[in-house]
Design goal:
Protein name: Spermidine/putrescine import ATP-binding protein PotA
EC number: 3.6.3.31
CATH superfamily of the largest domain: P-loop containing nucleotide triphosphate hydrolases
Keywords: ATP-binding, Hydrolase, Nucleotide-binding, Transport
CATH architecture of the largest domain: 3-Layer(aba) Sandwich
Strand order of the largest sheet: 5-6-7-3-8-9
GO molecular function: ATP binding; hydrolase activity
Radius of gyration: 18 Å
Structural class: alpha/beta
Strand content: 15-25%
CATH class of the largest domain: Alpha Beta
Pfam families: ABC_tran (PF00005)
Order of helices and strands: EEEHEEHHHEHEHEEHH
């Protein structure tokens, strides 16, 4: 479970996140929505211990990130497609992560098969397409078999088959009882699979509701989203 309470992050004297509170329960697939520059990536990085919070609290399975005995086995993260060294093979990258995280190296073959990269596991990352790098990042997030997963725009670069594969994977992971927080601009995918949506606007939570409640009387999810972020954009807010 992921519990965020009153989280604020300041950069250069400016509030990037301002009093963000939300919770992702076990078994929930929650999508994080918002325009570019509204703090989505900052929120995910802060959850994953990459950026410091100015104030507030983040608990992962009841513990703060520094208190986790083995973080990769508690929270799986995929925050971009440039995490792997371009000269490494997919297998070498995942093997290095496994050893660093105290995860059995035998798990590498399992996640390679899960993301359909077994046949290219010995190819260098520099030769991978964007969609293949997305799959590698998802494999890394799944490596520790964590109960909480945080993914930033995992659909980008996937072809139609890949999008359908990811849709099924995310839903199945949530149905297993995992907590998933996914940042995305792909509202079609959100409408298909999400349990809840959290909308950020200018670093604050503009909406946090089940999808049906969020859409409400609006024509569809897109109209509901545009209504939630209709306020003027604040200039200069990092993402």
């Amino acid at each position: 479970m992921l519990d965020i309470d009153g989280l604020s992050v300041h950069m250069g004297g400016q509030a990037v996140l301002d009093g963000v509170s939300t919770r992702v329960e076990n078994g929930q697939l929650v999508y994080l929505l918002g325009r570019n520059g509204t703090g989505k990536t900052t929120l995910l990085k802060t959850i994953c211990g990459i950026m410091p919070a100015t104030s507030g609290r983040i608990l992962i399975d009841g513990r703060r990130f520094p208190e986790l005995p083995a973080p990769p086995q508690v929270i799986g993260m995929h925050l971009g497609t440039d995490a792997a060294h371009p000269g490494h093979t997919a297998r070498r990258h995942l093997s290095w992560l496994a050893r660093a995280g105290g995860i059995p190296v035998s798990r590498v073959d399992e996640v390679l098969e899960l993301v359909d990269l077994t046949d290219v596991a010995r190819r260098r990352v520099v030769d991978f397409s964007l969609g293949m790098r997305q799959r590698l990042g998802i494999a890394a997030a799944l490596l520790g078999d964590a109960r909480t997963l945080v993914l930033d725009e995992p659909v980008n670069g996937l072809d139609i088959d890949g999008i359908r594969w990811l849709r099924t994977l995310l839903r199945s992971l949530a149905d297993e009882g995992r907590s998933l927080l996914i940042a995305s601009h792909h509202l079609d995918e959100v409408a298909r699979t999400a349990d809840r949506v959290v909308v950020l606007d200018s670093g604050r939570v503009a909406a946090d509701a089940r999808v049906d409640e969020f859409v409400g009387a609006h024509a569809d999810l897109e109209e509901a989203y545009l209504s939630a972020v209709s306020r003027p954009r604040s200039a200069g807010v990092p993402r």
